[in-house]
TrEMBL record:
GO molecular function, one term: DNA binding
Domain HTH gntR-type residues, every copy: 14-81
Organism field: Pseudoglutamicibacter albus
UniProt protein name: DNA-binding GntR family transcriptional regulator
UniProt entry tagged with the keyword Membrane: no
InterPro entries, alphabetized: GntR_C (IPR011711), TF_FadR/GntR_C (IPR008920), Tscrpt_reg_HTH_GntR (IPR000524), WH-like_DNA-bd_sf (IPR036388), WH_DNA-bd_sf (IPR036390)
SMART domains named in the record: FCD (SM00895), HTH_GNTR (SM00345)
Keywords, ordered alphabetically: DNA-binding, Transcription, Transcription regulation
SUPFAM superfamilies the record matches: GntR ligand-binding domain-like, Winged helix' DNA-binding domain
Pfam families noted in UniProt: FCD, GntR
């Protein structure tokens, strides 16, 4: 068999693996599979109507992202909320996303700035009848608009990895600190207008970093812990 003949088979295998990854990841993020849920490969394969192989590959990818953990007695389970991981990831994102947002500000289009304003108004509308899950979804979309034009692809990859690690625990954090949401909307507006006004990069970086740290410290306060030293 020639290499050209092998490509369709390889493509199908990749497609099945990606489909399994997307399905399992979505179930973790929407909490169909809650923290601590045991991921039985054969059961998931039966649900997805595929073999165990693509499911195993998907679970390995999710483990690398921090959404799945392996233990000797249980096998693969959905990662529990880890307070230390939350602290470390939020501190890291404060630095990385702040820098990425500042670099992106030089390249962001007027249309994307307006789209960010519109998203923030959608988020503001949620405050009257607070929905943590929808708030989190729109919040992530808004931040992605602000940092995605960062020309440093390595930095952008690190930011994406940080958001991936945060995905499984962000809803629970805003459940714990619903009052933080109102201040978050105000800070979004300040950051967006600083970008629109072409403020210096160090000012934009400082606003983006402070925004992340305010959320972290609000969560730590709600958990009865001291504020971050960063």
């Amino acid at each position: 068999m020639t290499s050209a003949q092998q490509h369709p088979r390889q493509a199908r295998a990749t497609s099945k693996s990606q489909a399994a990854y997307d399905a399992v990841r979505e179930r973790i993020l929407d909490r169909t599979y809650e923290p601590g849920y045991r991921l039985v490969l054969q059961t998931i394969a039966d649900e997805l109507k595929c073999s165990v192989v693509p499911v195993r590959e998907a679970i390995r990818r999710l483990e690398a992202e921090g959404l799945v953990v392996f233990t000797q007695n249980k096998g693969a389970t959905v990662a529990e909320v880890d307070a230390e991981l939350y602290l470390n990831t939020m501190q890291t994102l404060a630095i990385l996303e702040g820098s990425a947002t500042a670099l992106a500000a030089e390249h962001i289009s007027a249309a994307d700035v307006q789209a960010a304003r519109d998203l923030n108004e959608q988020i503001r509308a949620l405050l009257a009848d607070f929905d943590p899950a929808e708030f989190t979804r729109l919040n992530a979309e808004l931040h992605a608009l602000l940092y995605s034009d960062c020309p440093n692809t390595h930095l952008l990859d690190l930011v994406h990895r940080g958001w991936t690690r945060m995905d499984a625990i962000r809803v629970s954090s805003f459940d714990a600190i619903p009052a933080r949401a109102q201040d978050s909307v105000k800070e979004h507006a300040e950051l967006i207008e600083a970008i629109a006004a072409k403020k210096p990069a160090h000012q934009i970086e400082a606003l983006a970093r402070a925004h992340r740290m305010h959320t972290l410290n609000a969560y730590l306060h709600a958990m009865g812990q001291p504020p971050s030293s960063l």
